[in-house]
UniProtKB/TrEMBL annotation, chains A, B:
Keywords: DNA-binding, Transcription, Transcription regulation
Protein's name according to its UniProt entry: DNA-binding LacI/PurR family transcriptional regulator
Organism of provenance: Arthrobacter russicus
Keyword Hydrolase: no
Segments forming domain HTH lacI-type: 7-61
Pfam families, alphabetized: LacI, Peripla_BP_1
Matches recorded under Gene3D superfamilies: 3.40.50.2300, lambda repressor-like DNA-binding domains (1.10.260.40)
SUPFAM superfamilies linked to this entry: lambda repressor-like DNA-binding domains, Periplasmic binding protein-like I
GO MF annotation terms: DNA binding
DNA sequence: TTGTACGCGTTATCAT
DNA sequence: ATGATAACGCGTACAA
C-alpha cells in the first residue's frame, strides 16, 4: 500500500554499517559512541533524509512531547494569537504544539478534544470559552491541563484568566480621573469567559458612582455598531463608552467620526480588549488590554510546572495589564 | 514517571473477560464477534474510558489518518478560515487535521513542517504563501501534498489557487460596465501567493484601456489607509478603487466617509478579497472574493484523490468566484 | 564502545 | 466466533 517507506533507524544503521542501538544513541545523546561511528551515522542520516517517527518514540517512551491546544473557532483573532504565542513557548521547550478547532458547537469541540486524547498529548490547553467544565473534568484529573480565559471550578485544571475585578477598578479609576459620570458600556454575549467580565463591570462601575447604560455588543462588528448607536441615542449622551470587545471600541470611533463627534474631547472610548492589528488607524485606542501574549506565557508556565510535577495543586493565575494610554480618552465635557 | 496509565485494549479485554483480539475486532469492525462479546466489550470500554492510542495504531497500520496543515501565521483571518474549513472536510472523511504555524519566517516554518513529518501525516496541506517551493520539493515527491493559494512549479504537489487572470478580466468587465476609466489599484506586498494577482491586474487592466494608478496596500489596515489616501490625492481623482485586500476596501470606505465622498455615486469600491466577518457594517462591499471555503473544498478534493492514488499526476485547480454584487460599485461620474 | 533482546499498544494473519 | 502470535519503529536495560 504505502508507495513510499520512510527510512528507519535500521535503514540508517545498515547504511552506516553499525547496529541500530548506535544510531539510537547518537540520536538521543544517551550513552557513548565513538567519534567515527557518530560521523558515519550522521552522514547516513543526512543521506537518507531520516526523520524520527513520533509514533514509535511515543510508544517506546510512554510520552509524546505533544501538547494539544483546543480552540473554539480558529477564525477569531484572539485564538489565532493564542495559538501563535503558545507555539512559541512549546517549541522553545522542545514540545510540539498541535492545534485543533471545534466548529462553534460543543459536540464538535468534544470530538476535537477526543482527537487530542488519541494523540496522547502530554499536556492540554483549553482555549474555549464555552465548553462546559464537565466535558473535561475527568480528563483534567489525569492529564496536565490548563484552561485559558475562563474559570474551571470543580476540575483539577490550572486556570489563567483576566483579573476582571481589577480591570473594572482600573477602568473606573481612569474614567473618574477624567471626570466622567455617564458611561455607556458595551458588553459581550455571556459565556464562561465573558460572564465574569460583564458582571464585574456591571457591578463595580455603579458602585463607584457611575451612571451606567448597558448595551449588548454581540459577536461581530455589525452588532457592535448597533450597540454604539443605541448608546449614542441616549439623552443625555454618555460622555464615555467602555467596551469589552475591540469591535465595540472600533465601532464607537467609527460612529463618532460619522456623526462629527470629536473622540476624547466630546466622547471618550476605552477598550478592555486587545485591538486587532491595524485597528489603530487614526488614533491609538486607550485600552486595558486582554493580552493574549501574557495569557499564553502564564498558561505555558502553569503547564510546564504541571508537566514536571503532575501532583501539583491546581492554581488560578489572574493576569492584568495596566492601562495603555492612547488618545481616545479625555476629560468629560462639563 | 507517568502518574496515570491510559487503559489499553488488554485492560479492556480483561475487564470484559475476552481476548484482546475480540476487543480489537469490535473496535475496528473487522471480523465477526458474537453479540454478547460485543456488548461486554462495549461496556468495558465505557467503564474504563478507553481511548484508542493513535501512536500504536499508526505503527501497526503504517498510516496515521493525520493530515497536516502548515500556515504562516495563525493570526491572519484567511488562515484561520482555511484551518476551520479544512478541518471540516478532514473530519468528515475520518481524518484528523493537525495545524501548525510558523513564526513569520521560513526557518520556523521549516521546523513546523518537520513536526508534521515526524507525526507521519498521511497528507500535507501547505497554506503558506511564502515558503519557497524548494523547501518542500523532496517532501512532496513522496507525500501527498497540496499547496493552497500559490504556484508550486517543479514540485509534485497539487495546487489550488485563485484564477488571477479571470478575476482581473471580471474586474475589468464590472468596471467597464459602469463606465469607469480612472482606476486606483491597491496591491498587496509581493509574495508567492500575491505576485500573480498583482501582476494580472497590473497588466490586464491597462490592456483593457483603463488608466491605472497603483498603490502599495501593505500588511495591515494602517498601511491600507495610507494607500487609499495616496490614491484619493491624485488629480483627477480615480472614480473607482480596486483592492486586492479586504483591508484596502474597508479603508477606502472609511476614508470616503470621512471626506464626505459618496461611495458608489462618487467613488466605487471593488474588493478582490473576502471581507472579514463584520466588515459589512454600513453596506455590502461589491467583491470578486477569494473564497477560503472554496479553496479548502478544492484542496480537500485534490488531497483525497491523491491519498487514494498516490501515483496520480499532480494537477493545478484554479478557483474563481463570480462577482458578488454589493452596493459599493456604481456608474462613474461623467 | 558495541550489539542483543525485550516491551510499548495495536492490527492482521493464521490456527483453532 | 475466538485465541495466539508476529509485526510496526524505537528506546533501553543488559550482556559482551
Amino acid at each position: 500500500m504505502p508507495l513510499y517507506r520512510n527510512p528507519t533507524i535500521i535503514d540508517v544503521a545498515q547504511a552506516a554499517g553499525v547496529s541500530k542501538s548506535v544510531v539510537s544513541r547518537v540520536l538521543t545523546g544517551n550513552g557513548q559512541v565513538s567519534a567515527q561511528s557518530r560521523r558515519k551515522v550522521q552522514q547516513a542520516i543526512a543521506k537518507l533524509g531520516y526523520s524520527s517517527n513520533a509514533a514509535a518514540q511515543a510508544l517506546a517512551l510512554g510520552r509524546t512531547r505533544n501538547i494539544g491546544l483546543l480552540v473554539r473557532r480558529s477564525t477569531a483573532p484572539f485564538y489565532g494569537r493564542l495559538m501563535f504565542n503558545l507555539q512559541e513557548h512549546a517549541a522553545r521547550a522542545g514540545y510540539r504544539m498541535i492545534a485543533v478547532t471545534g466548529n462553534l458547537d460543543n459536540a464538535s469541540e468534544s470530538r476535537a478534544l477526543q482527537t487530542l486524547l488519541e494523540l496522547r498529548v502530554d499536556g492540554l490547553v483549553i482555549g474555549s470559552g464555552n465548553l462546559p467544565t464537565e466535558e473535561f473534568r475527568v480528563i483534567a484529573a489525569n492529564l496536565p491541563t490548563v484552561v485559558v480565559g475562563r474559570p474551571a471550578e470543580g476540575s483539577n485544571a490550572d486556570v489563567v484568566r483576566i483579573d476582571a475585578v481589577r480591570q473594572a477598578h482600573e477602568a473606573a479609576r481612569v474614567l473618574r480621573a477624567n471626570g466622567h459620570h455617564r458611561i455607556g458600556f458595551i458588553q459581550v454575549p455571556d459565556s464562561l469567559s465573558a460572564a465574569p467580565r460583564n458582571r464585574a463591570l456591571r457591578s463595580i462601575l455603579p458602585e463607584a458612582g457611575f451612571d451606567l447604560t448597558v448595551a449588548e455588543g454581540g459577536y461581530d462588528l455589525h452588532e457592535a455598531v448597533l450597540a454604539v448607536r443605541a448608546l449614542l441615542a441616549e439623552a443625555p449622551r454618555p460622555t464615555a463608552i467602555i467596551s469589552l470587545s475591540a469591535d465595540g471600541a472600533w465601532a464607537a470611533l467609527r460612529e463618532a467620526e460619522v456623526r462629527g463627534i470629536a473622540v476624547a474631547a466630546e466622547l471618550s472610548v476605552l477598550s478592555l480588549d486587545q485591538p486587532d492589528d491595524g485597528y489603530a488607524v487614526t488614533r491609538e485606542i486607550t485600552s486595558i488590554p486582554q493580552s493574549s501574549g501574557e495569557l499564553a506565557a502564564q498558561a505555558w508556565a502553569l503547564l510546564s510546572a504541571r508537566l514536571e510535577n503532575p501532583a501539583r495543586e491546581p492554581r488560578e493565575v489572574l493576569v492584568f495589564s495596566p492601562v495603555h494610554h492612547g488618545s481616545t480618552v479625555g476629560p468629560a465635557q462639563s
